[in-house]
Amino acid sequence: MDERSLTVAAVRDVGPDAIAIDVETPDDFSAQPGQFVKLTLSVDGEDESRFYTISSPDVDGEFEMTVGIDPDGDVAPHLAALEAGDSLRIAGPFGSDYYEGESRAVLLSGGPGIGPAIGIAERALADGNDAALVYRDDAPIHEGRLDALRERGVLVHLLDGDADLTDAVAEATGEGGQVFIYGFADFLDDATAALEAAGVDADDAKVENFG
């Protein structure tokens, strides 16, 4: 989709310093959980662009982006001030490391990587498939959705920000499945090491590095 103005449907708090932005889906927009969009807005007369991964299980009617809020950031405070009815310039979707109907999704997520991970887990269940999720963060978000996944039988490991991933990853990958890794570079390194310790080929994982 070329860049166009889309209408904000809602802005919701989803945890410490984080919001979810729901945007109305145009008729010709199609995307899978794990893909991302380019969001552009004007800040002090200058265009600022950021990439945000879709965190809803589908894009039917609306789709969701999860945004971490840095009070000193150039863009995030402006996003936090949005209200329903406002417009955002959005292009996409982009990315190739997304859910494609795999029978079992193993989601390894650090920090803001929980957005696409939780969307994929929910989509997998909706499709009649299975999921396991490992999430490491000092200030976890989307906890209500994580609880809902647990209640539906999903293996969910919620770890402190400095926790070792080895045991949780070994359990999550014990029944096989397609591995997805979403997070910053240090988390990707730790997740890769944990996969290798579990005897899983990290080269087969679908990976998005958040920087």
How would you characterize the overall build of this protein?
By secondary structure, the protein is α/β, with parallel strands linked by helices. Helices cover 22% and strands 37% of the residues. It contains five helices and eleven strands; from the N terminus they run βββββαββαβαβαβαβ. It has helices spanning 76-80, 114-126, 143-151, 166-172, 185-197, and strands at 4-15, 18-24, 36-43, 46-53, 62-68, 87-94, 104-110, 130-136, 155-159, 178-183, 206-209. The strands form two sheets. Strands 4-3-6-1-2-5 form a six-stranded antiparallel sheet. A five-stranded parallel sheet has the order 9-8-7-10-11, with helices on both faces. The longest helix has 13 residues, at 114-126. The two termini are 24 Å apart.
Short recap of the structure:
The protein is α/β, with parallel strands linked by helices. Helices cover about 20% and strands about 35% of the residues.
Descriptive keywords:
alpha/beta, six-stranded antiparallel sheet, 5 helices, 11 strands, 22% helix
Major sheet description: 6 strands, antiparallel
- Poorly predicted tracts of residues: none
Helix content: 10-25%
What class do helices, strands and sheet pairing give? Answer: alpha/beta
Strand adjacency order, main sheet:
4-3-6-1-2-5
Gross geometry? globular
Strand residue content: 35-45%
Please report the distance between the alpha carbons of the first and last residues: 24 Å
How do the helices and strands follow one another from N- to C-terminus?
A: EEEEEHEEHEHEHEHE
The residue-averaged pLDDT reads 95
Gyration radius, to the nearest Å? 17 Å
Structure summary, number of beta strands = 11
The helix tally amounts to 5
